[in-house]
Design goal:
alpha+beta; Gyrase A, domain 2; 8-stranded mixed β-sheet; globular; about 25% strand; homodimer; about 30% helix; BirA Bifunctional Protein, domain 2; NA-bd_OB_tRNA (chains A, B); about 575 residues
Amino acid sequence: MYRSHNCGELNASNINTEVTLAGWVQKSRDKGFMNWVDLRDRYGITQLIFDESRTDKTVFELAKTLGREFVIQVKGTVIEREAKNKNIPTGEIEILVSELNILNAALTPPFTIEDETDGGEDIRMKYRYLDIRRNPVKNSLLFRHKVAMEVRKYLSDLDFCEVETPYLIKSTPEGARDFVVPSRMNEGQFYALPQSPQTFKQLLMVGGMDKYFQIVKCFRDEDLRADRQPEFTQIDCEMAFVEQEDILNVFEGLTRHLLKEIKGIEVDKFPRITYDYAMKTYGNDKPDIRFGMEFGELNEFAQHKDFPVFNTAELVVGIAVPGAGNYTRKEIDGLIDWVKRPQVGASGMVYAKCNDDGTFKSSVDKFYDQDDLGQWAKITGAKPGDMIFVLSGPANKTRAQLSALRMELATRLGLRNPAEFAPLWVVDFPLLELDEDSGRYHAMHHPFTSPKPEDMQLLETEPGKVRANAYDMVLNGNEIGGGSIRIHDKATQQLMFKYLGFTEEEAKAQFGFLMDAFQFGAPPHGGLAFGLDRLVAILGGQETIRDFIAFPKNNSGRDVMIDAPATIDDAQLKELHIKVAIQ
Amino acid sequence: MYRSHNCGELNASNINTEVTLAGWVQKSRDKGFMNWVDLRDRYGITQLIFDESRTDKTVFELAKTLGREFVIQVKGTVIEREAKNKNIPTGEIEILVSELNILNAALTPPFTIEDETDGGEDIRMKYRYLDIRRNPVKNSLLFRHKVAMEVRKYLSDLDFCEVETPYLIKSTPEGARDFVVPSRMNEGQFYALPQSPQTFKQLLMVGGMDKYFQIVKCFRDEDLRADRQPEFTQIDCEMAFVEQEDILNVFEGLTRHLLKEIKGIEVDKFPRITYDYAMKTYGNDKPDIRFGMEFGELNEFAQHKDFPVFNTAELVVGIAVPGAGNYTRKEIDGLIDWVKRPQVGASGMVYAKCNDDGTFKSSVDKFYDQDDLGQWAKITGAKPGDMIFVLSGPANKTRAQLSALRMELATRLGLRNPAEFAPLWVVDFPLLELDEDSGRYHAMHHPFTSPKPEDMQLLETEPGKVRANAYDMVLNGNEIGGGSIRIHDKATQQLMFKYLGFTEEEAKAQFGFLMDAFQFGAPPHGGLAFGLDRLVAILGGQETIRDFIAFPKNNSGRDVMIDAPATIDDAQLKELHIKVAIQ
C-alpha cells in the first residue's frame, strides 16, 4: 500500500492521524531549520513539514535533496498548520513527516508544472506527459470524462444502445479523404478508417436496434486547419421511427441535461431558426446569439440616392453596434482596415453614428439625409449612442464579411462570455450546394440525407432550392452537432446518387449494400452526431480543443511526442504488398 | 410521431386505449374473415387483429398484402385477447386495427428472422443487418452495452478517468504485426494502429492521471484463428502508486460487481494460484475450476516397475474422471484415439478403473499391483466408480495433452455449465519465455513488465526462472484479463530491452519517449486489460464472441457485408506515396 490518503483529502478532521502519502514534489521552501514541501497528486496538494527539532536527522537531511517533480512517499502525522491557507481544501493542515522514501528522482522538467507555464506549445507537446500534470490540462481531461459519462448515462436511460461499429471499413471517395490501411491477407486491397459510422448506424436501424449511440473516433485525412485533428471523437446517434421533431427533442434534452449537470445552468427551450433566416440575419449558419447585432437589409433605403457603390450592389446590409457611437475616427479606420484585410475581403465600409440627440453623422452624409439614416437605424435596431456599420456587394460574400465583423466586434466588446450558453437549432438546410469550381452540386450534409418531400419536384429544375430535413445544433457560434432524416428507400437513394453525379455502377460498388438493405424493410430513421472535442471545449469555456485531447497531433498530423508517423521496414512493406513511391 | 408505444409495453392495463404502433411484420395468419399479424420491434411483439366485421374493408384488404418484414404503422384500440399468451408481456392484449400504413415493403429475407434461423453463417454475415433483427444477436448487443455501462460506472465511481488515447500511432515491430496507415502529409511515413494503448497509459501515469481506464478498440494483423478478430475491444486500465495486491483487489471488485449486477450471482473472494501451480495442477495457465479432475503426478508410484513407457518419461501424470468407471472398452478406445489425434498428440493412454468394491482394473495390470493403483487413486483423488487416465512423456507436452483431455471430458460430462462462474487469479507468471525456434527469450507479457525484485539476480544466469509481477484473471477456462506491475525507471527498462535483444539504438528509436518520460518523475504503476468481446460472451453464457460484435469480420479479415477490404484508385495511392506491389 503506497498511500493511505491522496493529496487532496486531508483536513482539520484528520489532525493527529498517522498517514502515508505519495506524490510529486511541487516545490520546497528550505528555511534552514524548517523545510516545507508541497506534495502534489491528481487530487490536490498537501503541505509536508520537515522540522530540525521534530524530524529525524536523516529524514531532515534527505528532504533537502528533493528536487521539483521527484516522486516521493512519506509517513507522518497530520498536524494543524500555523499559517492556514483558505484557498485549498487541505489548507488547514500539514504533515509532520517521520519517514521519507524517494520513489523516483526527476530531471528538472523543461517547463514549469504550474497553471501558467513558461513552456511554449511545441515543447509542451513533446513532453505532453509533463503538460498533463498541469491543472489546466489535467482538469480538461477529467472534465471530458465527466461529460462523456453524462452523455452515456442520459442516452442509456432513454434506451439508446451503444454499439461499436468497425474501424476497418471500405474507402468511399465521396466526402473527405480517407485514411487507408493496406491488407496483408487480401493482396492489393485496402481498408479505410471511418470518417463516421454513418452507413453502419443506418444499417443498425435497418437491423431494428431502434436507438443507437456511440462515442467513437472518426478519421479524416484533410489538410489541418488550426484546431482540427486527423482523428476526432463524435457522439454518434441514430433513431428509427422518428421525425425531425423527435430527434430535436431528444438531443435538445441531452444538451439541456449537460448544461444543468455539468455547468449548473438551466436553459429555456432552444430557439429554432431556418438556414435562410440564419444567413439573412447573421450571415452565418452557426450564429452566436449570446448577443444581438442582427443584420438589417438596407437596399430599400440605400439604393434610392446617387451613391453608386450601394446602387450597384446586390445587397446593402448593416449592423448596429451597441455603444460604439463614440468610436474615434482612428478606431473606425482601424475597423475599415480590418474588414478590408484579405481574410475578410470587403472593399470598404460605410458607417453612421447615432448621436445621443437622435441625429446621425455618417460617412455618406453627402448622399443620405437624416430621414434615410433614421430608416437605417430603425431597420438595424440602432439606438442613440450606437454605431451602424454597412457593407455592400454580392449577397453571399457581403453577408460573410459582415458576419466576420459582427463576431470581431462582439469579441472586442466582451459580448462572447464563455460562461454564458446560448444554444439553438438551425433547420431546413439546403440539400445540395453548388461547387463553384466544378459547377456540380454536392450533398451539403451527406448523400443519405432526405430531401423535404414537398421540395422533391424542384430536384430537376432548381436543385439549389431543395431543402433537406437536416439540422444543426449551434452553441455560442459553433456547430456542435448536426444531422438529418435519412433516405430509407432504394428508389430515392438511387435518385440522389444520380443527382450527385454517381454512375449506377459507382453507386452500386460503393453503397450497394446500403441500397440492398433498404429493400428488406428499412424503417424511417434519422440521427445526428455531436463533435465531442468541440462540445467539451465549449462547455469548458475554452476556444481551442487541444487541451481537451490527451495526445493531440500538430498541424502536420504529427505526434511529436512519440515521433509518428515514421518509416517502417521493408519486410513490413513487402508483407503488405506495397512499395513506397515518392515522386 | 410514428408511434405512441413500442411493441413490448402494452398489457391489460392499456385495454381500450387508442394507440399507434410501428414495426416489422413478424408473421401473419390469414383465416379469411380474420387476420392476425405479429408486429415486432426491438422491444417485443404485439399482436394485431384485422377482422372482416370490425375492420374497415380497405384496411382489411390491405392487411392481406403484408409480407414478412414489411415495415408498417398502425392505429387501433387495445382489446383483450381471447386466447391469451402467458409467455410474452403483451400476451393478454391485441390491437384491433383501424388504420394501416405501409412504411416500407420488404423482399423476402434470405433467411428466417427467428431465434433459430435457417440461415448459415455466411449468409447471415452478408446480411448482418437482418441477422441483428434476430433476438439472439440483438440481445447480445444489448447485453454488451449493459456490461460496458456497468464497467464505466464502477470504475468512474472509483475515480478512474476514461482517457481517449490516439489511434494513429507509431509501428513497433515487437509483438504482433501492426496494421499501418500511410501518411499523405509525411511522405514515405506510416502511422500504425495500436495493438493496445500500453505506452500511452503508462505516460498518463507519468502525467499524474492516477487512475485511467478506457474501453478501446485494438488492432492486430494476425492470421485469424477461429473466433479471433483483427479489431477487438479492451477494457484497458492503469493505476499509479499501487502494488499488485491493489490492482487485484480493484479488478476483482469490478468482476464481482459485474457478476452480481448482470448475472445476479455472488461469488466469494477469487482463488489466487501461481502460474507454476496452475501448470502442475491443470496443465494450463487458464484453468477451468468449475470442476475438479486436478492432475496427480505419479512418477513416484509409476516408475518403480518394469513398464518402460513410464520409466523413460519425464512426467507421468493422471486425472480421476468422476463416475467414468463404467466406461465401456469402446468408449475408452475412443478416448485413446482422441488423445492420439495430431491436435492433442499423445502417443497412448493408460487407464485404471476404480471398482465399487475398492479394487482396480487397469490397462497395465501386468506391471502394477493393487497397492500401486491404490496410490494412483490416492494421488489423483479417485473414488470408487471413477476412472483414472494417465499420460506420460516430456513434462510440458504431457501436461498440455492431459489438460486437453480434462477439458474434453468435462464438456462430455456436462461439467462446463455456462450458468456457473468460477473466476480466479493466476499470478507470478514467468517474465520471459523461450522461443524454441530462435533460441531467444521473449517477454511473456510485454517488455514493460517488472521482474520480481527478488528474482532480478537470475536474469543473467537463469532468465527462464525470473518471475514477473504479472497476473491473469481467468474465468471458466478463459483468460479474460491480464496485466502487470510495470517498470518505472529508465535503468531497468534499458536492461530489459537489452535482455530482449534490442540494440540500444532500436530501443531508443522505438521507446525512447517512454524511457525519457521515466526520467521526469515516473510513479510506480501497473494495470491490466480485459478482453471485452470475450468477457461479454462468457458472461452471456456463450462460447463464441461473434454474436457479441455488431459487424464482425470473417477468418480472412473480410467484412462480407460491405465487401471490405477493396481496391482503391490510383489517385489515392499516388497521394499516399505508395504503389501496390504484388509478388
